[in-house]
């Protein structure tokens, strides 16, 4: 199960892009809203609930100052992927809050929703052989497109 946690409702559009891609892989998911800055107690309650599950991957979607991914990672033994929405504000430098983490925190950062979903799928593939084949086909389709584009260029 992928648990997508949004820092605020304004992150919902970005979170829904991840949901759409997860659906292509047949991966169950849930979206919640919880802010590491504004509602840490609510966030801890969510983590307490989902940390009991075996196959959980968290995706943190938070714009501006992203404390969400690091907070989740520091309070969970499950993988955490940051997927911050892109913003032209501050020349995109707000991404740094998703990249620089304190010691003992090991969340990953992916910039595109489809890449976040693919990363989730690859993490979950060990417990799902059908998912392995789905990922294999997904990658093959991309490879075939590149080869076709190259051949079309030569015509």
From TrEMBL:
Organism's domain of life? Bacteria
- Function, please? Catalyzes the conversion of N5-carboxyaminoimidazole ribonucleotide (N5-CAIR) to 4-carboxy-5-aminoimidazole ribonucleotide (CAIR).
Q: Mind telling me what this protein is named?
A: N5-carboxyaminoimidazole ribonucleotide mutase
Does Repeat count among this protein's keywords?
A: no
Family annotation (Gene3D superfamilies): 3.40.50.1970
Provide this UniProt record's keywords sorted from A to Z.
Isomerase, Purine biosynthesis
> Which PANTHER family is this protein grouped with?
PHOSPHORIBOSYLAMINOIMIDAZOLE CARBOXYLASE, PHOSPHORIBOSYLAMINOIMIDAZOLE CARBOXYLASE CATALYTIC SUBUNIT
Q: Which residues bind substrate?
A: 8, 11, 38
Q: Name one GO biological process term.
A: 'de novo' IMP biosynthetic process
* Reaction it catalyzes: 5-carboxyamino-1-(5-phospho-D-ribosyl)imidazole + H(+) = 5-amino-1-(5-phospho-D-ribosyl)imidazole-4-carboxylate
Q: Which family does it belong to?
A: Belongs to the AIR carboxylase family.
Q: Indicate whether Isomerase appears among the record's keywords.
A: yes
- Cite the annotated pathway: Purine metabolism; IMP biosynthesis via de novo pathway; 5-amino-1-(5-phospho-D-ribosyl)imidazole-4-carboxylate from 5-amino-1-(5-phospho-D-ribosyl)imidazole (N5-CAIR route): step 2/2
């Amino acid at each position: 199960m992928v648990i997508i946690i949004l820092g605020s409702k304004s992150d919902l559009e970005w979170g829904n892009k991840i949901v759409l891609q997860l659906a292509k892989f047949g991966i169950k998911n849930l979206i919640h809203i919880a802010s590491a800055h504004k509602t840490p107690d609510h966030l801890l309650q969510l983590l307490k609930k989902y940390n009991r599950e075996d196959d959980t991957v968290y995706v943190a979607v938070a714009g501006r100052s992203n404390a969400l991914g690091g907070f989740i990672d520091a309070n969970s033994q499950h993988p955490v992927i940051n997927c911050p929405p892109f913003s032209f504000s501050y020349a995109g430098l707000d991404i740094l809050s998703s990249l620089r983490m304190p010691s003992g925190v090991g969340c990953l950062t992916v910039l595109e929703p489809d890449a976040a979903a693919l990363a989730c799928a690859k993490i979950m593939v060990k417990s799902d052989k059908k998912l392995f084949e789905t990922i294999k086909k997904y990658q093959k389709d991309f490879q075939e497109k590149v080869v076709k584009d190259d051949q079309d260029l030569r015509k």
